[in-house]
Design a protein that fits this description.
single chain, about 100 residues, mainly alpha
Length: about 100
Amino acid sequence: MHTLVVATPALRERAFLASRKGEEELIRVLAEESDDPVLASIAAAQLIAARNALIEDHHRRIAAGEEPDAVAADAAERAGRAFDLIEKGLSGYAVKA
């Protein structure tokens, strides 16, 4: 599926727009929590970048021949490590008292 989307300009554009819409929604939610749209945009960029890196890694592993079940088996642990890394850098941001 990933190969088809990447190889098809119309699908690639739709995927980009869907991703961008999700990022804008995340920025909106974070801005409501923090009352700072600029920091919300920065935090969202970090979170989206981590998500995208994880997704791309999954696609690369599968394209290299790894079984999807094997990729899925460690996906939660890898995501946890990625978001833990971000959390330490964003510790205390957008957390209501």
